[in-house]
Amino acid sequence: MAAYTLDYEEFIEVNGDRQNIRVRAAEKGLPVILFLHGGPGVCDRHNILRDHSDLAEKFTLVCWDQRGSGKSYTPDIRKRVPTVAEYVDDAVFMLEYLTGKFGVRKAVLVGHSWGSIVGVLTAAKRPDLISVYVGEGQFVDGDRNEEESYRFCLEEAKRRGDKKAYAALLKGAPENGAYPDNKSMMIQRDCLSRYGGAIYKGKQGLVKGLLMPLLKTKEYSLGDIIKYAQGATYLTDVMWHDVVAQRLGGIKKLDVPVVITQGRHDYNTPSALAKAWFDALDAPVKKWVWFEESAHSPDVEEPEKWSRVLAEEISAITGA
Length: 320
Hints:
This protein has 320 residues and is an alpha/beta fold. The protein has a single domain, classed as Rossmann fold (3-Layer(aba) Sandwich). The protein is 44% helix and 17% strand. It is built from eleven helices and eight strands. The chain has helices at 45-51, 84-102, 114-125, 142-160, 163-170, 182-194, 206-216, 222-244, 271-280, 298-301, 303-318, and strands spanning 6-14, 17-25, 32-36, 60-65, 107-112, 130-136, 258-263, 286-291. Strands 1-2-4-3-5-6-7-8 form an eight-stranded mixed beta sheet, with helices on both faces. Helix 2 (84-102) packs across helix 3 (114-125) and helix 4 (142-160) packs antiparallel against helix 5. The model has no long low-confidence stretch (mean pLDDT 94).
């Protein structure tokens, strides 16, 4: 195991809410990368630190359990419904905190799935704090996203002769991005996982695919995993209408360099939608990188390539 000069977690007060971050770097003074996990509520520090600690040789890695998520979860989050705008404000706070703490002018912002919503909106709001925006599983427009994702599952169920899933899917089609109930959404997401639209070569359903890596990591205790589950289920349930109401397609320009690392087979946030948005986007620098053996999470499915691409593209743009 490599020795890291910085290797710790801490709680900080973020816009009135106590939140947890995990930091790893080989030495002080390195450029900062802030990772925005998916969900809402689906933290990924265990994957980042397991598969991408090689990046800590060149960068200070910061994994952040967002408001109501993972180690940042408290029952207080259930007293109201958080908004997408709050998470953007939290991300701005985090960038201000990290740039000040580590003595850098800007930080790299990496957004995965739900995190890519927060990432793009943060980049649009405070480009002065961001050296590069990196998207993975890039979300665009909620209604079109779910329509394409649902259609993929329905067609795959029919092609595979999965009659039970096909019948269940027919009963729960999304409308304007929202499913009739939580059960219908979970059925669709489970099919998405089993059919390779979430993890390309994966055969696991949704719950097992998320739970097993958590049980194997030392980053989260059993108590943390319980909090993780409570936060993820609550936030997904109460925030979903706000999430799918997002229309990033209306953002035609970003004043930061943009790198998109997208799985060719992604039907969670369908790649065709992300590519069309990217092609029309005006940005100082743009780079699109396909991951041919991935769906929604190239950082997990092709980890060595994803680390290499991040290091190369960030260094090429920033000179770091």
